[in-house]
Amino acid sequence: MSDIHSHVFVYGTLKPGHRNAAWASAVAQPQAQPASIGSAELHHLGRYPGLVFAETGEQVQGYLYTYPPAQLDAVLAKMDELEGYRGPQHPENLYTRELREVTLVDGTACMAWVYVYAQPLPPESLIEDGRWRDDLPVPQGESA
């Protein structure tokens, strides 16, 4: 994994087999590998999850998508649209995009882009096992 800029870590609706997976391959077909990211929490936000980094966080499970480096800018532009990312420090960002260390199943670590939730979290939204599933019940007080 030599090019740090050719990887994106996905943990929710962009994962293979989930409802927004087509967004991840709209520009280029990625190579997908199971992976995790540490010191993080996954939160149920209704129809999608949000990842945040926390000192008390655990492992969030997802996939590392690897793209052809020449197509990554177009891939990120497409994902930015879905994730509500408008640019660094933009006050209306739903998510920010950060370069973080991700660990593959075999223990190999690499750097990847990850979308980090940038808004206040609803109470009782933590997904304890760090795994998003489309059929998770909606937390009380949230709407689907």
UniProtKB/TrEMBL annotation:
<dbReference type="Pfam" id="PF06094">
    <property type="entry name" value="GGACT"/>
</dbReference>
<protein>
    <recommendedName>
        <fullName>Gamma-glutamylcyclotransferase AIG2-like domain-containing protein</fullName>
    </recommendedName>
</protein>
<dbReference type="InterPro" id="IPR009288">
    <property type="entry name" value="AIG2-like_dom"/>
</dbReference>
<feature type="domain" description="Gamma-glutamylcyclotransferase AIG2-like">
    <location>
        <begin position="8"/>
        <end position="133"/>
    </location>
</feature>
<dbReference type="InterPro" id="IPR013024">
    <property type="entry name" value="GGCT-like"/>
</dbReference>
<dbReference type="InterPro" id="IPR036568">
    <property type="entry name" value="GGCT-like_sf"/>
</dbReference>
